[in-house]
Structure formats: structure tokens, C-alpha cells
Amino acid sequence: MNVRRSAAALAASAVLCVGAAPAALADTPSPSAPPVVPSGLFGKADPTYDGVWRQSLALLAQRTVGLKPAPQAVDWLTGQQCANGGFASFRPDAGTACDDKTMYDTNATAVAVQAMKALGGKDAQVKKATDWLKSVQNDDGGWAYAPGSPSEGSSTSIVISALAAAGEKPAEVKSKAGKSAYDGLLSFQLGCSAEPASDRGAFGYQPADGKLAANADATAAAALAALGKGIVVEPAATDTPAAALACPAGSADPAGAAQGAAGYLAEALKKDGHLTAVTPGADQPTADTGNTADAVIALAAAGHRQAAAGALEWLQKNSAAWANRNPAALATLVLTAHATGTDPKAFGGVDLVAALNATGPAPVAPDTEPQKVAGEEKPGSGNQNIWWIVGAGAAAGMGIGILLSGRRKKQQ
């Protein structure tokens, strides 16, 4: 799952500020005075915009490789939930009740649903969170990052994946206007009339001047959602070629939409072996590591292992600098390895599991033996810092994606 959050959250905050009193942001700490990072939280960077997101991904990744996360890490996540079931991106004082000033975050809530479901024993919390997500569904069937805003492709996809992981049937989750979650999702797909033809099958973030533009971030998330899958993808037993959107028929159902999205991603990866994006302030595209990982997971979920093979190899060679001491990025790579049947403890010469464990509270079991991380023997868990050994060209892998894809724009 793409892990870049901060700029998207900032953008959402800016939109809200236009029509809201300054008090509406009182629950969000000033960027100039970042909060103290709690001991139970993964990562040491400012968690204002991604605390719940990175924690959820870290716990999911640990569970995926058979580890039992530390109780304080689990307690930190569940303690972030508001009484109504929703989550903000981060609440520095979880002891203070949420109120009408709380900036709720559908993305944070959705990924927390998946983490709590995977942890087990959190059925009440999961139900409250899914009920809250359903309560903020827009009339068109979709969701926005910030409730009350227009729907967008990325958040709609993330919420649908969470609902599916929680056991809900997205086709039966309907808005007050009678539109289903899948109605909302499919409205963001570029169909057979899209130009250029290479964009057909992709999903967009939001229309601009009435027109959708292909967005890799939204497309990868939409492929998972349309398949009814969450972030954790089991390796496929068979492999099939990825194909372009079937035209002139287009996508008649979510499954067809997912395959069209996968076909777009497969073609997009062929050019350089990875995705690219033009970052703010730049005039040339650079490697987009996070969306490349997302694309690999989406292709694996769709049963297209060979189509993802080149990008997986690129990630193994170029993701170290991007993920260095970054729990959300490390967790995403662990989930990428899992989806493709790759060993996360030998991912391009790096033990992703040990590196992830080192960014947060030590897991309870069974990972207690020393593990090799980038050529050094380090304990398999704990809060010590691990600096990866990065090759001279690794910095080229530090793509950060499109600013307004609606999701995680900066890993913390």
C-alpha cells in the first residue's frame, strides 16, 4: 500500500481551512512544533500526518511474517480510535475525547481497520470503525480523505479494501442516494473513450475541468479494491498475462475493472521497470518507489506475477534509501515481498523484518534471535537505529510520487 501521506493531509487541511474557523484545526499540532513521538509508536519522525497510517502498516507487516506485535504498539493504535469509531491521522493526547474539531481521516481509519482485523480480538473496534466509514460515504458511493469533501479515487479504493478485509460486501454498502461503494469506485476509471489510449483502464484521483487523468496511486489502490482485497495479498498459485482494458466493451463489473487497472500498470512499468512522477518543484520525472511497490502488489493480487517481476527486481536494487528507518516504507516492502512470494529477510540483501522491528517496540515473539541487516549483526527487534548500507546509485530510488494523489505523500 502506498505510504505517502503528509502532503495529502496538508492539502486536505488547506481545503478545510478555506471554509472553516481556525479552531477547526485545533486538534492538529502546529508543524513548527511537532509533538513528542510516543514510545509505542513506530518511527521517530513527526507523526502529525501519518501516525495511525504508519503504525497500522507496521503491525500488519509484523503479523504477515508471523510476529506478535508488542502490546504497547497495539494499545497505541487502538487508543487513537475516537468514540464514534473513526480515527484522525494522529492524536497527540488520546486521553482527550474527540469532538467536532477533530479532523477525521478515512484513510487512517481504513488502514487501522485492516490492522485491527489482522491482530485478532478487536472485533468491537473493527465494527465501530467500519460503521463510521459507512456513515461518511458520499452520495455518489465514494469517499474523500476528509469527510464532507468530494469523493476521490484513492480514498474510495482504500476504504473499499478495508471494508472487504473486515468481511463487508462493498457492493452492498450503499449511500443514502442508493449508490454502492463499487458504483463510486468505477466512476473513477478511464474507459474506452479515454485519450491517449494507453491511459485506458487506469483510475483517476479526481476530475479536473471535468476530465479524469490517469493516476498510478489511485490505479494500484483501485485494483485491490475492485478485487475485494486488502493490503495483505497472498501469493497467487498461478500466473496469467496482464491485458489491456477490453474495448469497446470496457469494464462491466469490478473484476473487469481490476484487470483493466492491472493492464495499465503492467504497461506503465515496462518503460523503465518502475513508475515515475514529477515531484513538486521539479521539471523532470524521477523514480516513484512507493507507487512502484503498490503496482507490484496490485499485479500480484490480479495474478500477474511475471508482469510484476521486473519492478520487483528494481525495488530490490533501489528501495533501500527510500525505506531507511522508515516504518511505513519498510512495512510496504514487507507486504510487497509477501505478495510476490519473496523472502522479506533477504530483499535485495536487506532484512526488511529486522529493519522494521528496529523502528518500534520489540515484537513479543517469535523473532528474538539476532538477524543480519545489511551486513551487520543486529538484534531482531528493539528501538536501536539501523542504517542500511546504500549503494552509490540508491538515491535514485527516492521517488515520492504525485503531490495530490490523495494519499500518503511523505513517509514518517
Please outline what is shown here.
With 412 residues, the chain is mostly helical. 39% of the residues lie in helices and 2% in strands. The chain has helices at 6-19, 51-64, 71-79, 106-119, 123-135, 153-165, 181-186, 216-226, 254-270, 289-301, 305-318, 320-323, 327-340, 352-357; strands at 276-277, 286-287, 371-373, 376-378.
How does this structure look, described?
With 412 residues, the protein is mainly alpha-helical. The protein has a single domain (6-31, 41-397), classed as Glycosyltransferase (Alpha/alpha barrel). The protein is 39% helix and 2% strand. The chain contains 14 helices and four strands. The protein has helices spanning 6-19, 51-64, 71-79, 106-119, 123-135, 153-165, 181-186, 216-226, 254-270, 289-301, 305-318, 320-323, 327-340, 352-357; strands spanning 276-277, 286-287, 371-373, 376-378. Strands 1-2 form a two-stranded antiparallel ribbon. Strand 3 (371-373) and strand 4 form a beta hairpin. Helix 4 (106-119) packs parallel to helix 6 (153-165) and helix 9 packs across helix 10 (289-301). 57% of the residues are buried. The model is unreliable at 13-30 and 367-412 (pLDDT under 50).
